[in-house]
Write a structure and sequence with these properties.
single chain, about 600 residues, alpha+beta, six-stranded antiparallel barrel, six-stranded antiparallel β-barrel, about 25% helix, Trypsin-like peptidase domain-containing protein, VMAP_C
């Protein structure tokens, strides 16, 4: 059972509404609840605190009096702190939505309910109305409706008590059983300190607090200059190929900063945003601190070197070992990353590379069940950005738990049921490793050595190797292997640990069967083990092939496997290929863990 101690009753003249404590001294409510605060006293009451505590409005969202005006947010500062009451906790923004719908509670103070009462609701959809509100509908046909007295009430998850938003409108007619919620991440546009309380996995609270303090140090005269407008600074931060400006106009410099923090997957954009602030500030200490952010060691992203083939070698990004000069890859990059809005919400961004130039063709936060359709549509669209003679490569950057996803088997489109892996060379990459400056550096070194080697060394990890020490494997692979072949998929247990150890060893090529042997064999994995047979076929097929050309060879192998009419599936039917050459993808996005801290 969740505590109601941080719920508050707000009175301002003849108006009564609700609110909720977010710090020891600050309460959030609707601006229209305290619209007369200029002439009437504001009082805040808590169930376990005697009497009403005087308060004053210290921040305002800009609401100007009409029901359809945005910014219906007010921050109240209490005359005294209330350390006996623990402030409300916030959920991730996407937690309010789900299938089946999540049950939401609002604690309001309508007439004849001085002590407060609960209303049960659910969010109709995660779509914002006018870029500001989410529609609420009654959980059941009976029960307490949202009527006057609920404005400003926290909307909480019934099972955790965590806040996902605030009731911003209530019906005068009790027969109307819907209302509107101002989601927490929208409220944060209007009060920067709220951004520190809302979960964002890519940034810690200290990171967001520091950025807020720096942004708040720039006065209105700063953003009045055209070159310092929030829109201009946002565009400079995301670059010419980054996500476009949102359809609404930024209301403040913080609004733009919060949009970068909460909506844009490129965490490096926040560092660039800070650097642009430094360009226009006159305060020397601030300028020095801001300029230092992008240049920290872990902020340095791998850049594409000039490709000069070694004697007898190929071009690095396109040819690989001993293959002669060949055209470089033109990747279509599909990045799928947790959005920070809950376990089942992802940021999907599809980009096309044409030489060193990258263009984002689509970027959107989506629930897991909509990722596939959106990614496939944007992949098809990305082909418009490639030259006719371009050497296509579809590269999926996936969270580690998704690396075994059957992206190669995805039906290419609604009109083409053939697997995506038969349409073009397709590889996967690990999101966490792509964000590691150290491992990207090691990968670059590995490919430089591969370009100069006549052959690549394959290390086999059999089903019976699950008890192997992961640390020793990582060190051993760094010293004596170029590719790793697994007999079983990276499922839970020993195989997954060894898979992670191989990623940490900066192995540029990793191959495994998506299905088949479960990796629970012992004693070497020989005999009738399907995994051992897979490794034998793999070693035979890879013999003499340059690693830089593997995407093409595996593509041809997949075509053969998909077209096979044999009664048993071809050994490579479920073959997965992790292949990563940082030189193919200059200036990758989103690889800074904490650019603000």
């Amino acid at each position: 059972m969740t505590s109601a101690s941080w719920h508050a009753r707000i009175s301002c003249g003849r108006e009564t509404g609700a609110g909720f404590l977010v710090t020891e001294r600050h309460v959030l409510t609707c601006a229209h609840v305290v619209a007369r605060s200029g002439t009437d006293e504001v009082g805040v009451s808590f169930a376990q605190e005697p009497g009403a505590i005087p308060a004053k409005v210290v921040a305002h969202g800009g609401w100007d009096g009409r029901d359809t005006d945005p910014g219906d947010v007010a921050v109240l500062e209490l005359d005294r702190s209330v350390p006996s009451i623990k402030p409300a906790s916030f959920a991730a923004p996407s937690d309010a939505y789900g299938d089946p719908p999540r049950r939401l509670l609002a604690y309001g103070f309508p007439k004849r309910f001085e002590e407060g009462t609960l209303a049960e609701y659910r969010a109709t959809a995660d779509q914002l109305i006018a870029g500001e509100w989410v529609q609420l509908e009654a959980w059941a046909a009976h029960g307490q409706p949202l009527v006057p007295g609920f404005s400003g009430a926290a909307v909480t998850l019934a099972d955790t008590g965590r806040v996902v938003g605030m009731v911003s409108s209530a019906a005068r007619d009790p027969g109307i059983r819907n209302g509107r919620m101002l989601p927490a991440h929208v409220m944060a546009r209007y009060w920067p300190r709220l951004g520190e309380l809302i979960p964002t996995p890519e940034y810690g609270r200290t990171d967001k607090e520091r950025l807020r303090q720096l942004v708040e140090g720039r006065g209105p005269e700063f953003t009045d200059r055209p070159e310092c407008s929030p829109e201009r600074l946002y565009c400079d931060a995301v670059g010419p190929f980054g996500p476009p400006l949102p359809s609404r106009r930024f209301g403040s410099l913080w609004d733009a900063a919060w949009y970068l923090l909460s909506e844009v997957p490129d965490t490096g954009a926040v560092a660039r945003f800070a650097a642009r602030l430094a360009d226009f500030t006159e305060d020397a200490p601030t300028r020095g601190a801001l300029r230092a952010w992008p240049s920290r060691p872990h902020d340095r992203r791998p850049q594409a070197p000039v490709h000069r083939p070694a004697a007898g070698a190929g071009t690095g990004t396109g040819a690989g070992t001993g293959a002669g000069a060949r055209q470089t890859w033109s990747p279509i990059l599909v990045e799928i990353a947790p959005s920070g809005s809950g376990d089942h919400q992802f940021l999907v961004e599809v980009s096309a590379y044409n030489g060193r130039h990258r263009r984002v063709v689509g970027s959107r936060a989506l629930p897991a069940d909509r990722v596939r359709g959106y990614a496939l549509e944007r992949i098809d669209e990305a082909y418009h950005e490639l030259e006719p003679a371009a050497r296509e490569l579809i590269a999926f950057v996936l969270p580690r738990r998704w690396l075994n996803t059957d992206v190669a088997h995805w039906q290419r489109s609604a009109d083409d049921q053939s697997p995506l892996g038969s349409f073009a060379p397709l590889v996967v990459m690990d999101l966490e490793r792509r964000r590691s400056g150290g491992l990207q550096h090691k990968l670059l070194q590995k490919w430089q050595r591969l370009d100069a080697q006549p052959t690549a060394r394959l290390h086999r990890i059999s089903c019976g190797a699950v008890e192997q020490d992961p640390v020793r494997l990582t060190i051993g692979l760094r010293r004596g292997a170029d590719m790793v072949g697994f007999a079983s998929p990276p499922r839970a247990g020993g195989t997954r640990r060894l898979f992670q150890a191989s990623l940490n060893a900066a192995m540029p090529v990793m191959l495994w069967p998506r299905t088949g042997c479960r990796g629970d064999h012992h004693g070497g994995g020989h005999g009738d083990c399907a995994g051992a047979a897979f490794l034998d076929h793999l070693a035979e097929h890879l013999a003499g092939l340059p690693p830089g050309e593997l995407p093409s060879h595996i593509h041809e192998l997949r075509e053969t496997a998909y077209a096979s009419e044999a009664p048993e599936p071809h050994w490579a039917y479920d073959l997965a290929l992790l292949w990563e050459d940082p030189r193919c993808l200059p200036d990758p996005v989103g690889y800074l863990h904490s650019p603000v801290g």
